[in-house]
Specification:
The protein is mainly alpha-helical. The chain is built from 5 helices and no strands.
């Protein structure tokens, strides 16, 4: 009886893997297309806000709306929003003060700065720190 149960579980796992393998060519392109379309929408939203807000408002909005979602796609979309918003936003006094210089490979100081910024606003997850890297890049290019 136990052997039949184990074989049943192994068969079920194999079936799931097989179905996933068969459908991978179908869902991945659709997911990529959906993400690209949503990224365009987020960029447009960022440009819209940036036209009437300052840089700090762009960052605050990106982090506030980001805090209600999670995952890779969420980080990408909010990153597109923030980058677009910062492109056209008016300067905010002190926005780049105490922001570490951008490095291709984040230093421990960079990581600590971003982590504490996110934690102080009660935003968890790696995505917040990636958004903070956008602020670093933006400020380093000014």
């Amino acid at each position: 009886m136990i052997k039949k149960f184990i074989w049943g579980i192994l068969f079920a796992i194999a079936a799931v893997i097989f179905v996933a393998w068969l459908t991978q060519d179908q869902w991945l392109p659709q997911w990529n297309q959906d993400l690209a379309e949503e990224s365009v929408e987020y960029r447009e939203r960022g440009l819209s806000l940036g036209e009437r807000a300052n840089q700090q408002a762009c960052l605050d909005e990106a982090l506030t709306s980001f805090n209600t979602c999670s995952g890779f796609a969420c980080t990408i979309k909010h990153g597109k929003f923030l980058k677009a918003c910062l492109e056209v936003a008016s300067p905010a006094e002190g926005f780049c003060d105490e922001v570490p210089e951008f490095n291709e490979e984040p230093t421990e100081d960079d990581k600590s700065w971003a982590r504490h910024y996110c934690w102080d606003r009660d935003i968890r997850g790696e995505g917040c720190r990636l958004l903070m890297r956008q602020q670093q890049l933006f400020c380093s290019q000014q």
